[in-house]
Every structure is written in C-alpha cells, then in structure tokens.
Amino acid sequence: MAATIRLLPQPPAAEGDAPVPAAGLGALRRLAALVLALVLSLTVTACSGARASAPASLSPEAISAITKQAEGFLSARDRLPDLATLVNDRDWTFTRNLIHGPMQEVGREMLYINKLLLPADRAEAVARASKLKAAMAELDEAARLQDGEALRKAYIKVASGFGLYAQVLPEPVKQALKQV
Q1: Pick the CATH number of 60-176 from 1.20.120.290, 2.40.150.20, 3.30.565.10, 2.40.50.320
Q2: Residues 28-65 pLDDT 10s
Q3: pTM of the model
Q4: How far apart (Å, rounded) are the C-alpha atoms in residues 162 and 100?
Q5: Taking a C-beta distance cutoff of 8 angstroms, is the pair 131, 73 a contact?
C-alpha cells in the first residue's frame, strides 16, 4: 500500500530566509520516525528485561502468614520425642491420642503453607506434605491394629516426613523461627 504525501502550501518566506526544499523536509521526517522507533524499541526491551530477570519473592504478608502456620507445624514436630517414647512403649492408645490431638492440625497447616509458597516450590511441598500425611495415617493404623513392627516403621516415616517438609519452608520463615 503506497502512501501519498500531500505537501501543504508553504508560508511566504521572510526576507533573508532560505527556502526549505520539500525533499529535505521528507527526509527529516523519515529520520525523526526512525529515531523515535529506535528509542521506543530500546525502552520496551529495557523495561521488559528488568521485569523478567527479577527473582520471584514472597510478599511480607505471605511470609508472616507462613510463619504463623509454620509455628503450629513445628510445635507438632517438637512432639516427636513424646511420640517416639509411646511407640517404643507400644502404647497404642496414647499414640493414637497424640496423633489425633496435638498433631491433628499438621495437615491443615501444611495445606495453608503450600498455598502461600511460590509456584516453583509448591509441587515439591505438596508431595512432601502428602507423604507425611500418609505416614501419619499408617502410624495411626498400626496403633489401631496394635502392630508393633508396623508402628516402628511408620514412626520412622513420620519423623523423616517432618524433617523433609521443614526443608521447604522459605528462608525468611526459618530465620524468624530460628530453624536455620
């Protein structure tokens, strides 16, 4: 598609002014358009590059919420020595009471933490949370069936699961809770 350029009539030149040829004005316009296009493309490239290279990070509100939930998770983890004693004593009833009492909120706390994590960290956190919940269910079932060997194996999985899940907590949360 060919563009037609219409030249407007030139005002009369004042005395001493040299007339500007129409061809020179067109070249000046093309040069100005080229410079403008170059500046715009460099600006867009610079702006988009800065956003793309910035590392993703959690907001202070998300860190605060994760910290609050992690406190509950870690207090349940701190009950592992009590649970180990009950498992070694094969105390079926109190093992189940501890799982369904002080440790029952662990699944909910991990779920809430997982929702607040960065998308890149979320899949691993969900997988680790699922393994820990499954291990706790195995422990509960072994206590219900009064199976000492299954109880011992399930406890090892639970203790390992708490340790593995604690690793997915963001560094600022670990520092705030003195877990580093």
Answers
A1: 1.20.120.290
A2: 777 666 666 666 666 655 555 544 444 578 899 999 99
A3: 0.68
A4: 16
A5: no
